[in-house]
Design brief:
The chain is mainly α and 119 residues long. It is built from five helices and two strands; from the N terminus they run αβααβαα.
């Protein structure tokens, strides 16, 4: 799921910059590496996915890492990532996202079928 979320974040970067190639710098790599590491560590420590506090901690650590890399190493571009690479990162997470959407839809139908009829 990490690649799925990273793919969506990179697609958002393509959309904001309105370009088919996204410049990848050391700060961007550090941001995503720290974001993934802190998110996985937080989830393993807590035993579940806490969207509010977990993402807040992960994003704070990732932004701090990116800023410190910019201050120490500069912000030069290492390479340009094409749009198709960002789309390719979505592929591993698509089956899980579709299964989750189907499960929610089935749960909604089952809940409606078992609910007593209002008269």
């Amino acid at each position: 799921m990490i690649t799925f979320v990273t793919g969506w974040m990179l697609l958002f970067g393509h959309l904001v910059r309105w370009t088919t190639e996204l410049p990848v710098s050391t700060s961007r790599i550090a941001f995503f590496a720290v974001l993934a590491t802190v998110t996985v560590t937080w989830d393993m420590r807590r035993g579940g996915s806490a969207l509010g506090r977990g993402w807040l901690v992960a994003n704070t650590a990732a932004v701090a890492a990116a800023i410190s890399i910019v201050w120490s190493a500069g912000d030069r571009t290492l390479f340009h990532q094409p749009l198709w690479c960002s789309l390719l990162l979505l592929a591993p997470g698509l089956p899980y996202a579709l299964a989750d959407a189907r499960a929610k839809r089935r749960a909604g139908r089952t809940r409606d079928a078992t609910a007593p009829a209002a008269r």
